[in-house]
Amino acid sequence: MTDYVLSDDTRDKLARVSTASIATQLYKRGLRNQFIQGVRPVSEKDGNMVGQAFTLRYIAAREDRNQLEVFRNAGHPQRVAVETCPPGQILVMDARGDASAATAGSILVTRLAVRGCAGVVSDGGFRDAKGIGKLNMPAYCAGPSAPTNLTKHEALDINVPITCGEAPVFPGDVLVGDADGVMVIPAHLADEIAEVCAGMESFEDFVLEEVLGGAPIIGLYPCTKDENMQKYEAWRHMNGR
Predict the structure, then answer these.
(1) 198 DSSP 8-state letter
(2) Residues of the chain with pLDDT under 70
(3) Would you state the pLDDT for residue 171?
(4) Bridge partner list, 55
(5) Spatial distance between the Cα atoms of 237 and 231, rounded to a whole number of angstroms
């Protein structure tokens, strides 16, 4: 869907910015529906999840097509997605927002981690969530769910446009996840958003210090007073930001 390749520089910048900052910058550009609703980190990690999207689309399961025997098929889309999601990318699963059955479990997610993938996101459930939470690789889902995916979901399409948590996700889009959740950045905006947000995070660190020191918000956030901008520039110089 895109020829864009996430650079190390942009990845490093996005690793240090919040999903809130990204949401604000996308809003300024007219994009209001880029937050994946209803998913949470299985366990919090020290840094952000950052990577390009590799997608898997589930449809509602039909009983005559989704018996356990389907996993004997070497071409089963769920298994193929796990084995072909490129290192450094994020497997993003569209489960129609239905977390009443799992979309993956600890063995498949561990395989993604071993293969060097950057994360996994599903708007459905994960089984064996405790084991997934112990992995170093970030994982996001709508909640723990013991039933196998076959009870509710049929994996169908790989690396096609999907909806995950009500957000459109195109293959190659850039995902950033933190403790709040996951934002989807259209690939063509990723470098621009990373650059702008890096500066925004610096300013918000300054604002937080000022607020903790007793400064009022009016005229500071947003910065409408020249004296506060001057203080910010001095703060940047002093802190190497």
Answers:
(1) H
(2) none
(3) 98
(4) 92
(5) 10
Residue 227 CB burial class (10 angstroms; 0-12, 13-18, ≥19)? exposed
Residue in the structure block whose two tokens are 């864009």: 4
pLDDT number for residue 108:
96
Range list of β-strands (E), the chain? 40-41, 49-60, 89-94, 102-104, 119-122, 125-126, 139-141, 143-144, 153-158, 162-164, 167-169, 174-177, 182-185
Burial class (CB in 10 A: 0-12, 13-18, 19+), 136: exposed
Of 49, 57, 6, 89, the residue nearest 163 (C-alpha):
57
Residue 108, classed as helix, strand or coil, is helix
Angle value at C-alpha 190, between 25 and 114, nearest 5 degrees: 125
Helix residue ranges per DSSP H, 115-224: 129-133, 190-212
Angle of CA points 99, 121, 141, to nearest 5°? 35
Q: Is the peptide bond before 222 cis (omega within 30 degrees of 0)?
A: yes
Tokens of 80: 């193929």
Rg of the chain over Cα atoms, rounded to whole angstroms, equals 20
Tracing tokens 């977390």 back to the chain, one arrives at 99
Which helix (H) or strand (E) is 2 found in, with range?
Answer: none
User: What does the CA dihedral 126, 127, 129, 132 come to, rounded to 10 degrees?
Assistant: -80
Contact 55, 63 (CB under 8 A): no
